[in-house]
């Protein structure tokens, strides 16, 4: 892919709304972070997508940004000092201690599963070895009879590289990963304008579903005796030839979530599948429109051909009529001249023949032109 206009790239196409375009950019941002597949056209060094979700309150839109390198000044498009992912990680986690709220949420979730599987199967900050030889320490690891689940409670900033790393390692080890927030979206759960990219990265990486342990979810959990979560999810629909997005919200029991073993994902609503259906529907509509346009064009050409044939037949008939009139005129002239020739006949004309010639000369002079 070669991008000649980055503004057009971020603005998207007319067939999807701004919200859908941002969702797709979040997926590309994640792919870039994992594989560094986009390069600066000037210095040929890796770049990534940064910025804000929307330009509200003076915030910037999404845009391309360079990773930090030793020769930053060699590129005219470099924006200045940027930290590397390792530097950001050290600044975030160096001397970092869990907040009281983080510990409370972790204990709350732990207490929900102990009655179900036993305390020995609800492990707090266990050391899990990965296939890559390293180790990870998630907040909770719940061993259930048919699946193993890792809980990551996220209340502070986390970089996309760390998100990708944890998701990849845990999923490669056959574990389901569920990220827990204390809040998401606005108070009504209708817009993501106020959210930072790190939350949206987790949102996009999990089939555009997020799980929130807010006050309502905790109250329902305590009253029902099982874990409830508020789920925010993307739903897509087509309207006027364009795919649009809405933000759904539902309070649901943890047991009613979908555990997709094929993709190793936990979600309530399969947003990716719905978006694909919308794409296919638009493609089908596009094909039907093209077929209808082709059909109308064929009908127009057929009608045009019929009109041409009709006009050709009219012209042919007109030529035949003119030819017939000319032939008739010719015959009349020959007849007229035949009668006149009788004047020069040695035989005497009768009175009636003479009168006929006189009358003809008076009434139709064309015979004598």
Give me the secondary-structure topology.
Elements: H1 6-11, H2 18-35, E1 47-50, E2 63-66, H3 85-93, H4 100-117, E3 122-124, E4 128-129, E5 135-136, E6 140-143, E7 148-153, H5 160-172, E8 176-181, H6 197-205, E9 209-212, H7 215-224, E10 228-239, E11 242-253, E12 258-260, E13 265-267, H8 271-341, H9 351-363
Parallel strand pairs: 7-8, 8-9
Antiparallel strand pairs: 1-2, 3-6, 4-5, 6-7, 9-10, 10-11, 12-13
Description of the structure:
The protein is of the alpha+beta class and about 375 residues long. It folds into three domains: about 1-80, no CATH class; about 100-270; about 330-369, no CATH class. It has nine helices and 13 strands. It has helices at about 5-10, 20-35, 85-95, 100-115, 160-170, 195-205, 215-225, 270-340, 350-365, and strands at about 45-50, 65, 120-125, 130, 135, 140-145, 150-155, 175-180, 210, 230-240, 240-255, 260, 265. The strands form four sheets. The protein has a seven-stranded mixed sheet with strand order 3-6-7-8-9-10-11, with helices on both faces. A two-stranded antiparallel sheet has the order 1-2. Residues about 90-95 have low confidence and may be disordered.
Short description:
The protein is an alpha+beta fold. 45% of the residues lie in helices and 18% in strands.
Task: List its traits.
369 residues; alpha+beta; 3 domains; 7-stranded mixed sheet; rod-shaped
């Amino acid at each position: 892919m070669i991008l000649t206009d980055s503004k057009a790239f971020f603005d998207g196409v007319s067939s999807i709304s701004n919200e859908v375009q941002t969702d797709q950019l979040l997926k590309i941002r994640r792919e870039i972070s994992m594989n560094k597949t986009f390069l600066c056209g000037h210095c040929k060094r890796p770049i990534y997508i940064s910025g804000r979700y929307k330009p509200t309150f003076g915030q910037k839109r999404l845009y391309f940004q360079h990773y930090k390198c030793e020769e930053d000044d060699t590129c005219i498009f470099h924006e200045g000092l940027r930290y590397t992912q390792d530097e950001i990680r050290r600044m975030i986690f160096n001397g970092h201690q869990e907040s009281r709220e983080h510990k409370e949420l972790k204990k709350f979730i732990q207490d929900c599963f102990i009655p179900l599987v036993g305390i020995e199967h609800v492990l707090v900050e266990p050391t899990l070895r990965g296939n890559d030889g390293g180790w990870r320490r998630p907040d909770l690891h719940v061993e259930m009879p048919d699946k193993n689940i890792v809980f990551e409670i996220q209340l502070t900033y986390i970089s996309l590289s760390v998100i990708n790393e944890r998701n990849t390692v845990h999923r490669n080890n056959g574990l389901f990963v569920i990220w827990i927030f204390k809040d998401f979206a606005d108070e009504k759960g209708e817009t993501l304008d106020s959210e930072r990219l790190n939350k949206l990265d987790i949102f996009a990486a999990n089939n555009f579903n997020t799980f929130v342990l807010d006050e309502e979810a905790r109250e329902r959990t305590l009253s029902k005796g099982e874990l409830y979560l508020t789920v925010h999810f993307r739903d897509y629909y087509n309207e006027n030839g364009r795919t649009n997005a809405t933000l759904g919200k539902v309070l649901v029991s943890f047991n009613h979530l979908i555990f997709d073993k094929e993709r190793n994902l936990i979600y309530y609503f399969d947003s990716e599948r719905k978006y694909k259906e919308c794409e296919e529907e638009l493609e089908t509509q596009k094909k039907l429109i093209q077929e209808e346009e082709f059909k109308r064009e064929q009908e127009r050409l057929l009608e045009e051909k019929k009109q041409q044939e009709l006009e050709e037949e009219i012209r042919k008939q007109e030529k035949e009529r003119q030819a017939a009139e000319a032939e008739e005129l010719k015959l009349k002239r020959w007849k007229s001249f035949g009668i006149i020739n009788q004047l020069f006949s040695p035989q005497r004309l009768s009175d009636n023949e003479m009168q006929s010639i006189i009358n003809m000369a008076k009434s139709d002079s064309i015979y004598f032109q």
